[in-house]
Amino acid sequence: MTPSFTLSPRACLVALSLSLLPAVAMHASRAQADELMKWERVPLQIPLKTGQERVIFVDKNVRVGFPPALNGKLRVQSTGGAVYLKADSDFPQNRLQLQDMESGEVILLDVRTTAAASAEPVKIIYSGDVSTVSSAAGNTGEKSGGERSTPQTKRKKSYKAPIPVLLTRYAAQNLYAPVRTVEAVPGIHPVNPHLPSRITTLYPSAPVTVSPVAGWGVAGRTVVALRIRNSSSGKVILDPRELQGQFVTATFQHRWLGAAGTPEDTTTLYLVTSGRPDDAFVREPSTVRKAASRPAQKVIRYEN
Asked: Is 158 a member of any domain?
């Protein structure tokens, strides 16, 4: 016969309280583990303690830019939406840039070393109130019965302007505007245009040198920014109708170039292409290229 027990009401209450202690402690530690900071286009202050690593949870796939002054002083690693910072030696305040690889949005961090710095991880939030997010930090996303809540289906991206306009504006802002004022556009990402360092076939009718600067893409379209420099002693009026290649749109930052050697002798050209950027340009002559992998394009036109 199996023995049976009975616990007094007080003993039951004590046993229940003890059984809940680990769970309560676990949720409390989760709620207090991260220091929450809200990104509102104002640089976030991140103090670091020399020799101690600190984690910044960005929840975005980012690349990190930092000044040369921090070489050998700050170790930076980024993976899975988290940035790991470790100061190997003391340094004054410097600015880091975290760029979202998908939207291009830039988050600014002002980092410095101080003996009073906390080692707690930092979690960056983008909407809502910090206190509201903090109170909900203990929520593990699990439903009753052990079922986990499934993420919401991603909505199809919609844009307020035509893609070529968005790409051209985004490229111009990245090259000419302050980093913190660059408008974030969902989906825009850096692209390697795979172009030669000097392009002679794009604008052969004008005495200019052409070289690629950068590229960005979204929704099957790519914008390539190119530096246009006057190599003559006279003024050059820029005319997009004289460009050779297959482009969706062509936009000059300025309408003319000053004589070589003047401050006005250089500008930027933005070309939006469909598909691979290098396929939109007329191939360089065989004397310039080491090998001709594909035949030169004979049809020169603009797409509407």
From this structure: no
Does 285 fall in a domain? no
Does residue 195 fall inside a structural domain? yes
The residue count for the chain: 304
Number of domains in the chain: 2
For 187: left if phi > 0, alpha if psi spans -120 to 50, otherwise beta; the answer is: left
pLDDT, one tens digit per residue, over 249-294 is 999 999 999 999 999 999 999 999 998 888 999 998 875 555 444 5
Q: Residue 207 CB: number of other CB atoms within 10 A?
A: 15
Element (H, E) at 99: strand 94-100
Dist. CA 266–CA 258, nearest whole Å: 8
Continuous segment of H or E residues that includes residue 27: helix 9-33
Torsions phi, psi for 151 (to 5 deg): -65, 150
221 and 129 in a common domain: no
CA separation for the pair 122, 33 (Å, rounded) = 9
The reply to whether 112 and 193 lie within a common domain is no
Q: Report the CATH number that the domain containing residue 131 is assigned in CATH.
A: 2.60.40.1080
Three-class DSSP category at 158:
coil
Domain range holding 170? Answer: 163-280
Same domain for 177 and 129? no
| pTM for this entry | 0.51
Tokens of 97: 């840039």
Tokens representing 104?
A: 């291009």
Given a contact cutoff of 8 angstroms between Cβ atoms, the answer to whether 203 and 244 are in contact is yes
